[in-house]
Specification:
8 strands; eight-stranded mixed sheet; alpha+beta; 5 helices; globular
Length: 202
């Protein structure tokens, strides 16, 4: 399935090996705020990063996107951790063609796209598809507990803080990382969708 999500200024299209050079240039603008995230540096690292994402896609573990903002490539984002739930036998909510819950992550942006409408619109497109098309029950987001900048960005979207999972993942600084978890559930989405629309239209 080729999934393309189009907004006013942002398009999310499938990640491709053809994007390596542009992504390497995007990540090189400034690396000041990349301390806690896996963001490739240089052509070789970027090539390996994209190859890994595409392997995960082939294994049906991830749907990686290239973020195109105002006509230029500025970063990546993904759906992953797809959860098909096994409901009680005979339950009308059982389905096999789409996930019941998922996570949004692997998101990074070039310095020039940070603190702009780009991330808000990209997340709006991802959330709209997840809740309105796939009708998921929950979208999760997580970040290194020390990454205050990322945590503020998630909170500005309207996601609810759920807590900290200790010793969750390897950290980018070779420590064992604790992760802050956030969620948006289907009951939250109508009000949050309207608020994000107002932000994008203002």
């Amino acid at each position: 399935m080729t999934l393309v999500l189009r907004g006013v200024e942002v398009t999310l299209r499938p990640l491709s090996m053809d994007d390596v050079e542009a992504l390497a240039a995007a990540s090189a603008e400034s690396r000041k705020h990349y301390g806690f995230s896996e963001i490739p540096e240089g052509l070789e690292e970027t090539r390996r990063y994209v190859e890994k994402a595409l392997r995960q896609q082939a294994a049906k573990q991830r749907i990686p996107f290239t973020i195109v903002w105002c006509g230029r490539i500025v970063g990546t984002t993904s759906y992953y951790d797809f959860q098909p739930w096994e409901w009680p036998v005979g339950c009308d909510l059982q389905r096999l063609d789409r996930p019941d819950a998922l996570e949004i992550g692997y998101t990074w942006l070039a310095a020039s796209a940070q603190r702009t409408r780009c991330n808000t619109e990209a997340k709006y497109l991802l959330l709209s598809h997840a809740f309105d098309f796939w009708e998921v029950h929950r979208v999760s987001l997580r970040t290194d507990v020390r990454n205050e900048r990322s945590r503020r960005a998630i909170e500005r979207l309207g996601a609810q803080f759920e807590g900290v999972r200790r010793a969750d993942l390897p950290g980018q600084d070779c420590t064992v990382r604790d992760s802050a978890f956030y969620s948006i559930v289907s009951a939250d989405w109508p009000q949050l969708q309207n608020r994000l629309r107002e932000i994008l239209e203002s």
